[in-house]
Inverse folding.
């Protein structure tokens, strides 16, 4: 279970790091085809995207720690 969680969390971390450093591109990820012209992203949206990506990384890290503790904890006889 721990290995699967780590493997599936790698893309989540990648997306969160990408949206932390380039929030405008990550905001339009898979949605650029909808617009003829690239829409402008406001400063508030950029801050919210960055806060959300940090929050997502914290949640995934806490999840991985909990799964690791449950996986490697000694089982009771």
């Amino acid at each position: 279970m721990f290995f699967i969680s780590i493997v599936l969390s790698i893309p989540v971390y990648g997306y969160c790091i990408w949206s932390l450093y380039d929030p405008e591109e990550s905001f339009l990820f898979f949605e650029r085809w909808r617009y003829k012209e690239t829409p402008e992203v406001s400063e508030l949206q950029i801050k919210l995207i960055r806060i959300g990506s940090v929050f997502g990384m914290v949640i995934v890290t806490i999840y991985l720690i909990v799964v690791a503790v449950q996986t490697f904890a000694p089982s009771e006889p």
Notes: The radius of gyration is 17 Å.
